[in-house]
Amino acid sequence: MYEDVPGTLSAPIAVGRGAQHATNIEHVIQALAFHGPCSQATVSRTVGLSRPSVHSIIHELEAAGKVEILPGPNRRDCAVRLVANTGRYIALDLGHELVRGMFVDLERKVSYRLAESITGSHHHTGDLAAIGKVVDGLCALSGVSLGDMTSIAVTLHAPIDWAGIVSPSTIMPNWTGLVPTEVISSYLGKDVVVENDANAAAIAEWAWGAGRGSKCFMYVKTSQGVGAGIVMSGSVMRGATGVAGEIGHIVVEPHGPLCNCGNRGCLSAVASGQALLAQFDRINDAPESLHDLVDQALADNPVASRVITEAGHHLGTVLAHVIAILGPDRVAIGGELARAGKLHLDAVKSTVIERIVHTISTGTILVHGSIDDSPSLMGGLLLAMRADGQAMSVIPDWILQQS
Asked: Which domain holds residue 385?
């Protein structure tokens, strides 16, 4: 899986010739994953190998179809990027009300997308039925049977511990105590890779987006709930229990509204999309959805602008503490609230600046996530590819453009 690929590289290990060569190849691939398209000189400096050695490995990877050499002044100074030319993958994103799916065929360069509403009971079997419909639909559109899929990845809007069990929470209570990898694999009759949605989005942004080249990167998803994924030296930081990054349950207002976790004033209780919409109960022309709320704010509706700005300040309060503890070099804000642009991000930034020691925060850059097109789904695609030993330095345009 992608999070096992370190972004900070050590010197090649002196072992047997065959094993050493394989290790050196892996280091070169890691460097290309970390830096993206870059020169062979950059790879050489990163991995500590001579330029002739790197040149030889790049030539070997090119012959195997693993890298592409882009036009440049000469072969050693032109950019090199990872490519993947084979494999048929399905990525699924299981949310509260919807399952989104994407099929990608790297050889034919085609992709399809489908979504299915989750209906029926609140039992996890309703989620499985929606997953099955999306998978069946993608197989029909692509003309590829489920058995011929290279690998499948599922991102889940719930915390998953080290044992692969969904931790007790009110986010997706119908999955609590279950092992989604086993449940979904059994239902489909096909092995799947499962990851938390915020972690998957963080992996995608680290590999392909706003976190490119970051040694300690944090992605914050601000939608119906608030969660975060942390990628440190190329590995997802999971903590002792496996569910690190649940910043939505850090208390910011001790006497604030009751949170569904039982505490008062959690970030999710005051700054999630669900919490913001709840504030409109007694106001005329209340937005019907989080998307509608953001649209109203972008149209300068004063009430919508106020609640989104306040949400940004609350998030900034939490991030000030996280930055002081972790010292990330980059934090990216994504999700539906990020669509509000500067209105939300500026509020986050101003609060972080106000609440943190200047010498600590100067090394942290706060930005919007750069993968606008379903970062969790893109993270799922990346995980599915890595399960097959594949990697790309950039997302090809044809994956983003086709549907």
From this structure: 88-200+374-401
pLDDT mean over 302-314 = 95
Shortest CA distance to 177 belongs to which of 190, 189, 188, 163? 163
Q: What is the DSSP letter of 346?
A: H
Tell me the pLDDT band of 17, cut-offs 50, 70 and 90. low
Please determine, for residue 308, whether its predicted confidence score (pLDDT) is greater than 50: yes
Please check whether residues 264 and 331 belong to one and the same domain: yes
Paired residues of 367 in beta bridges: 332
Q: What predicted TM-score, i.e. pTM, was given to this entire model?
A: 0.87
Helix (H, G, I), strand (E, B) or coil at 196: strand
- pLDDT of residue 179 exceeding 80, the answer is yes
Q: What is the number of domains present in the chain?
A: 3
Same domain, 62 and 112: no
Q: Which of 230, 157, 149, 235 is nearest to 190 (CA)?
A: 149
